[in-house]
Design goal:
Blueprint: H1 3-31, H2 35-60, H3 64-87, H4 98-103
């Protein structure tokens, strides 16, 4: 077996693994259950797609695919920022823990 064949098998295996992971992230982005889960899955989906394009660039010896991967990275970054600004609140509600209520004198003892 030559080194080129070994690399071809390695790259093919990596692409199959990325394909399975991309499928898992698509399912995760549909199921959710929270909007932050969906945002993270879309971010991971973009990252794995970029890695797949980069592997294809090396495997097929096509330099323009590296440029496509970089452009896709910029588009994915902007898309995740837009989703985060739309779905994640600017000032989230902070839950008050029972221990904090007792320290502040807001407990139920009437004092």
């Amino acid at each position: 077996m030559k080194i080129e064949q070994a690399y071809h098998i390695l790259f093919g295996g990596a692409l199959i693994v990325f394909l399975l992971l991309i499928g898992a992230m698509v399912i995760r982005s549909i199921i959710g259950p929270r909007s932050t889960d969906r945002i993270m899955s879309v971010n991971m989906l973009g990252t794995m797609t970029i890695c797949s394009i980069a592997i294809l660039s090396v495997m097929l010896e096509e330099g323009y695919l590296a440029d496509v991967a970089l452009i896709y990275a910029m588009i994915s970054f902007v898309a995740v920022l837009m989703m985060a600004s739309m779905f994640v609140p600017a000032e989230p509600k902070h839950p008050v823990l029972p221990e904090a209520e007792e320290e502040n004198g807001e407990g139920g003892d009437g004092k």
